[in-house]
Structure to design on (156 residues):
């Protein structure tokens, strides 16, 4: 270390030729010969206040809490009703689909069960008579959807 130069600035030691600082050295703050000003913290005394209960604030907090609880209960009730109604709608839609299926099946059975000969036999047994040719009125239809009657239609 004899070949290396030492340089001292503000009580920090720096050795030329080395990039490392000596961190284990502490500056001596007592070396300064200047004026030392010591300040003591000022204590500001405040008058002691007695804690008071503010009934208006407590009442306002309680009222706010009650209002929040009431709104929460109403919201939960409406949410429950909405869920219940949605489930009922789905159930009723399922019932409608089932009824439509059964109606289609019954309609097909009715169409398959129509036998005109059986109907004619039952009707004639009950007293119905076949229509006579003289009672049948025919007409020519033009392309119009109107039907004009120029005379009385014979009553049967």
């Amino acid at each position: 270390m004899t070949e290396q130069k030492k340089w001292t600035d503000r009580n920090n030691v720096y050795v030329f030729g080395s990039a490392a600082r000596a961190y284990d050295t502490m500056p001596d703050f007592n070396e300064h010969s200047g004026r030392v000003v010591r300040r003591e913290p000022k204590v500001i005394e405040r008058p002691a206040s007695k804690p008071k209960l503010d009934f208006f604030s407590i009442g306002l907090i309680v009222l706010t809490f009650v209002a929040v609880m009431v709104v929460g209960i109403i919201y939960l009730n409406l949410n429950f009703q909405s869920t219940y109604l949605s489930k009922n709608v789905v159930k009723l839609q399922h019932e409608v689909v089932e009824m439509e299926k059964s109606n289609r099946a019954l309609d097909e059975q009715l169409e398959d069960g129509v036998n005109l000969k059986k109907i004619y036999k039952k009707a004639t047994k009950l007293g119905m008579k076949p229509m006579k040719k003289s009672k049948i009125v025919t007409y020519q239809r033009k392309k119009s959807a109107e039907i004009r009657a120029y005379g009385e239609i014979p009553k049967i």
About this structure: The chain has two helices and two strands. Strands lie at 6-9, 12-15. Helices lie at 55-113, 116-125. Confidence is low (pLDDT under 50) at residues 1-8.
